[in-house]
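Colleagues,

For the teaching module next term, I've prepared a clean inverse folding example: a structure given as tokens, and then the sequence designed for it. I'd like students to try predicting residues themselves before seeing the answer, so please don't circulate the second half yet.
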């Protein structure tokens, strides 16, 4: 299993931006789909964005379309989530996750290995 460590969270005002990073260990990183999930208190874990193993396909939840972008750099074993135009409702703990081997990253059921998460708090 890939070991994942997120960073980049913090407190930001509404309308601001953050870039989250997820550093992965393991030689097989480049063969896995990767994704970002978030969970706010009292809510179910929500799929935010996914990226295929090759980086050729990306997917985003409707709630973040036009604002968030997922990308990966397999040479650096890192996946990113660029978050722009942040809203208070984006406040949550954000976790990256490894999905299926050679997966598309599109389907929530692909993901079974999560990092510890990084907190994002958006103030109004």
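(Answer key — instructors only)
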């Amino acid at each position: 299993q890939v070991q994942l460590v997120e960073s980049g969270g913090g407190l930001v005002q509404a309308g601001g931006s953050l870039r989250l990073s997820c550093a992965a260990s393991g030689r097989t990183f480049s063969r896995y789909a990767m994704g970002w999930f978030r969970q706010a208190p009292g809510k179910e874990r929500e799929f935010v964005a996914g990226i295929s193993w090759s980086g050729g396909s990306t997917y985003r939840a409707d709630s973040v379309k036009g604002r968030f972008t997922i990308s990966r750099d397999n040479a650096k074993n890192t996946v990113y989530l660029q978050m722009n135009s942040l809203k208070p409702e984006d406040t949550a703990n954000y976790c990256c996750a490894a999905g299926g081997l050679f997966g598309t990253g599109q389907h929530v059921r692909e993901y079974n290995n999560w990092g510890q998460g990084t907190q994002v708090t958006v103030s109004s």
